[in-house]
Design brief:
Radius of gyration: 16 Å
Order of helices and strands: HHHH
Number of helices: 4
Distance between the termini: 31 Å
Strand content: under 5%
Number of domains: 1
Largest sheet: none
Length: about 80
């Protein structure tokens, strides 16, 4: 969805998303700077410290939705036979 210049967002990109939010040019649920807005502080701290792997959890959530994490395309849900 978004093409970032580096693996992590730059301050310029963060500022761009802040401006877009302020101007109402992007929905909050699609704005990456709000992704952790509703997360519990203790969980957020554990993500930052590396105790929780947010990428692994996001990958699992995509799989739970039947989405291929690499392509973003719907591939269907895993059955008990395909989970093993």
């Amino acid at each position: 969805m978004w093409a970032f210049k580096t693996r992590t967002m730059t301050q310029v990109e963060i500022n761009k998303f802040r401006a877009m939010a302020t101007l109402g040019l992007i929905e909050d649920e699609l704005n990456p700077i709000f992704i952790f807005g509703s997360i519990n502080t203790h969980l957020l701290r554990d993500v930052v410290s590396g105790k929780i792997d947010a990428r692994a959890i996001a990958r699992m959530e995509l799989e739970n939705r039947g989405i291929d994490p690499k392509t973003g395309k719907f591939i269907g849900w895993k059955t008990e036979k395909t989970r093993a």
